Amino acid sequence: MRVAVVIPSYKVTRHILSVIAAIDTCVDTIYVVDDMCPDGSGALVERECSDPRVKVIFHPQNAGVGGAVMTGYAHALADGLDIVVKIDGDGQMDPALLGDFIAPILRGEADYTKGNRFHDLRNVSRMPKARIFGNAALSFLTKLSSGYWNLFDPTNGYTAIHRDALRLLDTSALSQRYFFETDVLFRLNLIRAVVVDVPMDAKYEDEVSNLKISKIFFEFLGKHARNFCKRIFYNYFLRDMSAASLELLLGSLFFTFGAVFSGYHWLHSASRNTSTPTGTIVIGMVAILTGIQLLLAFVNYDVGSVPRRVLQKQRAGS
């Protein structure tokens, strides 16, 4: 298979030449997408890099990391590449690990691979505590919204994708900025693509990250809620209906009824300074507990329904 690398370039002039130089010869084409970089990353590459595999693409206006990556994806598909790897140009992602990312795709075990910096406790101990907490929170939200309960480190942008998954991916609907990597996972679940985590060590040198979790957490929270609702509706009510659909529906109804019923009677009794009847308490508690049990059964089903059949095999079989 022919392999391409996409490098979104924005304020990475200090590292991008060394990143390109370290990319293995197994890569056929390297797309450097200058996202209207104020430091002239693309011009620097054109001037200083003699690697014949490199193609520099210039954006007329800043489109964000997602927009830059999608531009690279489009060129890779148009040029007939089979696997597209995305590496940042700031030096945080070791190009020497590229083979680890494409290997599961080559073996037909995955449609999409992504990095996971949390596999090794020694690597985790070097991270700032705020980053660890932020990534843990975002990872849990991503599991809920994307349906990939087996993944971690959702903001990790070191990824590789097979052309079959890329062709089915609705790139026009993808978030173009920092939510891009997380939004890709949500869209991949809708097409039932197999995603695999690849253990990796992060490189922390003198690069400056533009992503501040404290600033984007609440923005991400809203987008996760939106994607969760879309995924649940599409997978469990529109595209298919199963016992899990009934568990979710009935569980939500029972829990909501129990909470509202109990809350109303508690306030009513408190306002009259009287005790709530035992039967009333039992009705509310039974409804709440029944709702929780049904919702837990739904979550258990959802965890077990992570896509496991790769798209490239399905297309080959057809």
What does the model show?
The structure is a single chain. 41% of the residues are buried. The model has no long low-confidence stretch (mean pLDDT 90). The longest helix is centred in the C-terminal third of the chain and has 30 residues. Strands 3-2-1-4-6-5-7 form a 7-stranded mixed sheet, sandwiched between helices. The chain is 53% helix and 11% strand. The chain has 318 residues and is of the alpha/beta class. It starts with a strand and ends with a helix. The chain has 2 domains: 233 residues, Spore Coat Polysaccharide Biosynthesis Protein SpsA, Chain A; 76 residues.
Short account of what is shown:
This protein has 318 residues and is α/β, with parallel strands linked by helices.
Q: How is this fold's topology laid out?
A:
Blueprint: E1 3-9, H1 16-21, E2 29-34, H2 41-48, E3 54-58, H3 64-78, E4 83-86, H4 98-106, E5 112-116, H5 121-125, H6 129-146, E6 159-162, H7 163-168, H8 180-190, E7 195-199, H9 213-238, H10 243-272, H11 278-304, H12 311-317
Parallel strand pairs: 1-2, 1-4, 2-3, 5-7
Antiparallel strand pairs: 4-6, 5-6
Helix pairs in contact: 6-9, 8-9, 10-11
